[in-house]
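Title: Prediction job returns without error message
Component: structure pipeline
Severity: low
Priority: P3
Assignee: unassigned

Description:
Job completed but the reporter wants confirmation the result is attached to the right record. Sequence as submitted:
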Amino acid sequence: MTDSFYAVRATPHRIARLCGPPAAAAVIASYDGWSRLDRDPGEIGGLTRGFGCALSFEPDLRVVTYSPDGSSASGFEAAALPGGSGLLRQALTYSDPRYTERTRLADACRALGVPVALLAAPALSPTFAPPPTAAPTPPLSPTPTTARTDTPPPTTARADTPPPTTAHADTPTPTTARADTPPPTTARAGTPTTAHADTPTPPSSLSLWPLPSPSTGVVLAGPTAHADAGLTGQSAWTVPLSPQWTLYFWDGDGRQTPPANAALALAGRHPAVACWWSAEAAGFVVAHGSKRVAGHQWGGGPAPITPESTAAAGRVLAADFGVPDQALAVIGLLRRTDLAPPDALASLFGLLGLPDVGAGHATTASLAEWAATLPAAVHTPRMTTMAAIRSELVGARALWQRLLNGAIAVLMFLATATLALVWQWGGISGWWVLLGALTTLSYAWGLRPRRP
């Protein structure tokens, strides 16, 4: 278990540029603009103007935060995210044998907005001490040295031919080094030496620990999602799941749009739910219109998870999918921590009454292969913004749109007739009559089921 955890909201490159290479050597891991350090982040946070935090067990959890302006706060006064104060208080005070130190530390990170993924990076061990900034230069003159027991016996070298020498197996033999070869030196206590090939090398800001990231994403949208698929800016498949829901996902070609952004593009009169999963994390975001109204992630995330947030997300999902009787079951599933994140997301699909489409376990490639075999699936290539708008304008019109166009056309016809009478009496210019006639024709053309 990690006894202390230090993090700062700054990338290794920013730390190296503003604090110098020695400070960058303190970086253990980096994720989503954050860096985990092997020391207190107060000084580095002040120089980089970044938020920092220090979490430690002494033996109870102690939380200290550092603001970009240099001020600090600790305990209940620590700078938590909006809505994260309750989770921070729980991490500091809640007592239960099941509430382990690792879980307590993860909740404190969520309350402060620190990526929980940084906890996966192991702390530096004493053997990972950074190398000295200036190593002593070896002398160029011949120096008698003591040979190592795990190296071949040294010989007396001449400039032209190396004659064979006799060396006792357990007796070190002095050698005469060439003028252009640095001789080996005998290590003294406190003197830095050259590491062997089997000695671990210290991590640096250019070689960081690999951290997880979501890899597969889908969007649950309304039945007309295929008509708006071009607005997402990616090449994708749309598969009908039921009369009310369709499954939309990237086909793996070209550049991917984040599922949450695609959900905002597809959420109009019908809600849209963006889902994503990997081996380490899984989650969703619910979009109504142009707003994200709820969300949750198993396996940690940047937003704090509180009883209030899980209750709100569970009620929204149950209402959107027409299963209000499953609201408590959905809320309980969101609060479970004993399931693997992909399994939890797959269980959520079952509670919402959706068919098994491989949520939580399928990959982007397998989803694309499955969609290609379905006759009802619709493939939408990637479009530019202007092409997507044009496709939206010339696409099929709903009945309510045609009726609205017809009502406006009738009103514009009456208004144009009135303008024509006023024009005959010399009250206005004839251009107003022409403008009214053109507007009437445009709305009358909108009565057609599909524009050419």
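Comment from assignee: result matches the submitted record. Residues 123-214 have pLDDT under 50 and may be disordered.
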